Amino acid sequence: METADPLDAPLFVPVRPGPAGCWTARLFRSPLGTRTAVAFTGEDRLVRTLGPAQPWIRLSERALRALTAPLGVTALRIDPRLTAPAPAPVPVAAPAPVLAA
Question: How far apart are CA 13 and CA 59, in angstroms?
């Protein structure tokens, strides 16, 4: 019995609307700021992590890597469990007034 190449197994890939109504892969950032593609091995895992409103498409790992490589994205996280909301902007403190002597 021949085993299938794991790079060809279909994954659930989060997407967002792109130009002209096409879907585009949604890219994320690692804790160190590296652009990263994300995929899930099951729809339930995607929903648990990103919520039920997150649109997705099915792509193989090979196809997702081919899609993101021209963008310089080489990192891929499969089934990430922890996500955090984007940090809130830090208010800029007003400069202290200069007192005349």
Answer: 7
The continuous run of DSSP H or E covering 35 comes out as strand 35-39
Collect all residues with Cβ–Cβ distance below 8 Å to 81 and sequence separation of at least 6: 49
What is the chain's pLDDT, residue by residue, as a tens digit (101 residues)? Answer: 444 777 788 999 999 998 878 889 999 998 889 999 999 999 999 999 999 999 999 999 999 999 999 999 999 999 997 666 656 677 777 676 777 66
Rg of the chain over Cα atoms, rounded to whole angstroms, equals 20
**What gap in Å lies between CA 68 and CA 70, rounded to an integer?**
6
Q: Say whether pTM exceeds 0.70.
A: yes
